[in-house]
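User: Round two. Same drill as before: sequence, then structure, for each protein.

Assistant: Same drill it is. First protein:
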Amino acid sequence: MFSTAQETQPLLKLSSSLLDHRKQEDYFSTIQTRYEAFARNLEARIEDGDPLAGKMATLSVEQHVLGSTTSSMRKVPRAAAITTASTELNMITMAMRKLREAIVATKRNDTFAATAYLFIVRTAIIIGHSESYHPALLHLINRPHRVIPISRAEEKEIVCYFLLDLACRQRDFATAFQVGRAYKYRSMRFDRVMRALVHGDWVLFARAKRGADLHEQHLMQWADERMAGHALQCMGKSYLSLPKNYVEQSTGMRWEELKEAKKLSWTLDDHTIVIRQVRKR
């Protein structure tokens, strides 16, 4: 944890000497230790029933670091605790960036570089920080003459993440198709995701997301709000009312947040959401 300035300092003070390979490895170990400590602390607080910890676990790093003013953030109590978590996550992402830049500067293409890049990609995807995982993904995808040693399974994993980022976050479907064909990437799940995004099929998207692994689900979250909009349009055109839990499960948002975020005129009657009132004759 980063509870004091003295404890946080070691993550950043090595930046001037990170051109040394041994220093890079020591720095990487420090990042891993700090991230694992933060994750364990957050998990323990969730298990203890801390509602703040549960809320923080669902928020992206952008919301923590940039101080989002969305309704879900405004409803979270104990702002000082959120600031602490923001500082911890911000410190971790800054440290990962410094390490990545040091590896690039030293043109390191050994096993350590592969391990560090994979850690940065996986960690940054989980905490939702595209500024950290996207450059690392690009470097692994375009690694010079394939000199960075990663296995075939790891290469397939990286290509999958890159394609999902293109489709879900960047909405660049054409490039996603081109890259998939160039790397001969075949996945029924990815095909379903692409079909769902292109056609606005929110039911297919939800099914594909349920079958995805943790990292893939986090990348697909970039499209959640867009697919929720498609779901609401379909519901609004097709139904007079729907069960509250069905609407929440279909959109991935609580009714209170959904109503405020989407400016819905729908009303709640007990456990039923009334979309349109039936006119009495």
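Second protein:
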Amino acid sequence: MADRLTQLQDCLDQLLTQFYASLRYLSSHHDSSSLDPQSNQPPYPASDTAPTQRVDSPSDFKAAQKELAQDLVTKTKQIEYLIRVLPGLESSEQQQEERIGRLEMELREAEEERNRAAKEKEAWMRELDMAIMRVRR
């Protein structure tokens, strides 16, 4: 599992991707209409070509807008949560240094235990090898 900062960066990247995808969807699936409801002119002059778009029905477009907004809100809440649980925000620098010292001590103890276990394993392997050699004779 990735550390919290990496998770936060991934969520920010995903949020930006969602923003881009949302804007792209909204700009390519809306109904092109004139800004002036009184105008009889088409939304694009005859010389211009309308951008390629697939116009959704108003109900589908509204549902998609709602879903896109919900996705953005959900991702934003995930980002806020990750920021809240970042270590050290509620601790002073001295408390963080003390915690790092305790963690280093635990790491040294775990390393020593691992080394002892490796030596014990080697001793058992030698004893097992000698037992196998005696049985072969």
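The chain is about 70% helix and 0% strand.

User: Perfect.
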